[in-house]
Amino acid sequence: MTDDPPPNPALLPAGFVDLLPSDAEAEAAGMESLMQVFAAHGYSRVKPPLLEFEDTLLSGSGAAVAEQAFRLMDPDTRRMMALRPDITPQIARIAATRLADAPRPLRLSYTGLCVQASGGARESDRQISQAGIELIGPDTPEADAEVVALGAEALAVLGVPGVSFDLTMPPLAPALIAEVGFTPAERQALMRALDRKDAAAVAKLAGGLAPVLTELLHAAGPAERALSVLGGLVLPEPVRALSERLAATFAAIKARVPDIRLTIDPVEFRGLHYHTGVCVTVYARGQHEELGRGGRYVSNNDEPACGLTLRPEALLRAAPARAGRARVFLPVGSDPALGRRLRSEGYATVDGLAPVADSVAEARRLECDMIVAGDGVVALN
Amino acid sequence: MTDDPPPNPALLPAGFVDLLPSDAEAEAAGMESLMQVFAAHGYSRVKPPLLEFEDTLLSGSGAAVAEQAFRLMDPDTRRMMALRPDITPQIARIAATRLADAPRPLRLSYTGLCVQASGGARESDRQISQAGIELIGPDTPEADAEVVALGAEALAVLGVPGVSFDLTMPPLAPALIAEVGFTPAERQALMRALDRKDAAAVAKLAGGLAPVLTELLHAAGPAERALSVLGGLVLPEPVRALSERLAATFAAIKARVPDIRLTIDPVEFRGLHYHTGVCVTVYARGQHEELGRGGRYVSNNDEPACGLTLRPEALLRAAPARAGRARVFLPVGSDPALGRRLRSEGYATVDGLAPVADSVAEARRLECDMIVAGDGVVALN
């Protein structure tokens, strides 16, 4: 083992990357735009830490993501800590402890990095940025709608084209199936078939539910059509309540954002395991990856909550590129007041640090777009 | 051990904290202000990951902080990874690999979280924000001065009062001592005495160097006086070169920022172990903690580099509080166009989600400063 080559210094662990200038700037600017939309709607920013004790971070709603967490030992206390794989459970913790006495609805926003031991939404990423909101307290269609509407506004500010929101009601299919006396094995096989959207297997396994489940499977698509199918079915009471809540949430979203593109998949029940009501996944036309997801859940202390988490890296890939600051070269001896004026006007100034024979060539070498001339600038092209 | 109480969900590991709304917002806004100052001077943002393989992260200039790093194993490769205790070595890595062909001077900026197994600058913090710059390529007083000047400008933008920059030249005292034939044990004892600023021990241990070292110890303070003491000493050649570089850097900083407050401690040689030239520590009057530090070092591939890292948490404690957005309550049924207008004017709007009997009381309960009335707002007080 003494002949190991020296490590390649540019090699990073799978799923961890360096963002280089234009991407790093676009990601930061995009994240800041999202946070400003949230702040403008009265969402207050909180910033929980990257690490917590494993038993607090991965309990409650955090249990759903426990298997994705990196663990490490606190050398001080010898207790196990975990790097957060998701920020939402931390917000739930803060809402239930430090902000337990803050008035409800409690509107919180957050942004930060998460680390997952196995690849998350995108197979290759293990470090994931999140930017999101949580609306804690009310359990109403209007609360669900506020969260979706803010997501739509944030993505519009970023200029992401062709955004659509796919609504689901994860408890619906399990509630429907629970009404029938399946054995646990039958139930599990049916759930798996539904999860795979395998209509043939569903028809075979669902017994008396086969017509309803088949119709619901085919109803997935534009929201109005899916709701019309759902509304036409005779559903047992607990299932009908879920179906009506989905319809009411749809109506509340359309009332706030009339031109939003909404689809509904009524039997979908995947996603994080803690969701208890309407959920949403955000897509953009032509992008294979999710831009974000969220939904309703029961927070710590049994408080109703609804949240949405956007993924800035995915948004960066979906949004149009932004122009950065134009770069102006200031040769040695340029008037400092001119530099200050240019910066206040939104330029980036690049100071020459030593005299050069050819300032224009030096400006080009330094990837500047302009150079000072007199008390103004001239473009280099 | 079965009678353990349930964990207190609000308990975080020592050195990790939740930032609650006003602090989290102030920290984020302050960080963004810093990054905008850096961007306006042509510093391009890069974003290395939180984790790297231990052998790349903690080699080169990273070796100096290796003992502070948390390690964890990559389950995919079974290689050891480390959470970064400092971002500067990652910037050096990027400059020497992915940006090896970018033109020099290479100006890079970064912001992000670091994690240290033992408390860093502030005993209790183990999660530390950093926001900084690196100027890679030139080894000149003007390059040193640019970095200090940008730090001064960034702190002025934040409104931190009473900022001062303490300059040191860490190689100076070791170079002076190396000119004399001390035994390793004598040398180590003398260095320790200097480190403690123990003038009596220095006088006893320094032999023929005692007069010079004593004078230098007492010279620490306002920059002009310290430089005058240094300039009056007869120093061996390599030491004189260091002293002259310190004086030239001082002059270059004053030329860029005439009203900057500078002190010099000529025999100080602490700090991160990788510094090879002028170093700087940033303080604010009345604050015991450092606001930032930086200096000159030799980057990967033997490239000269100079950097400055500011600590947003410390800046948050030193800067005046910023006013957040004023909050306006919009009762159910308010005109959505009015909400949009208010948000575009910088207000935070807080939507009522259900009708209430007393909108003013509800607005107060939701900690709003104003409520809509007609097509405008009225203040609540």
Automatic annotation (TrEMBL), chains A, B:
InterPro entries: aa-tRNA-synth_II, aa-tRNA-synth_II/BPL/LPL, HisRS-like_core, HisRS/HisZ, HisZ. Keywords: Amino-acid biosynthesis, Cytoplasm, Glycosyltransferase, Histidine biosynthesis, Transferase. The keyword Amino-acid biosynthesis applies. GO terms for cellular component: cytoplasm. L-histidine binds at D86, I87, T88, Q130, E134, R270. PROSITE patterns: AA_TRNA_LIGASE_II. Pathway: Amino-acid biosynthesis; L-histidine biosynthesis; L-histidine from 5-phospho-alpha-D-ribose 1-diphosphate: step 1/9. Pfam families: tRNA-synt_His (PF13393). GO terms for biological process: histidyl-tRNA aminoacylation; L-histidine biosynthetic process. Residues 34-355 form the Aminoacyl-transfer RNA synthetases class-II family profile domain. GO terms for molecular function: glycosyltransferase activity; histidine-tRNA ligase activity. Its main location: cytoplasm. It is found in: Cytoplasm. This function is generally fulfilled by the C-terminal part of HisG, which is missing in some bacteria such as this one. Required for the first step of histidine biosynthesis. May allow the feedback regulation of ATP phosphoribosyltransferase activity by histidine. Belongs to the class-II aminoacyl-tRNA synthetase family. HisZ subfamily. Heteromultimer composed of HisG and HisZ subunits. This is ATP phosphoribosyltransferase regulatory subunit. It comes from Gluconacetobacter aggeris. The gene is hisZ.
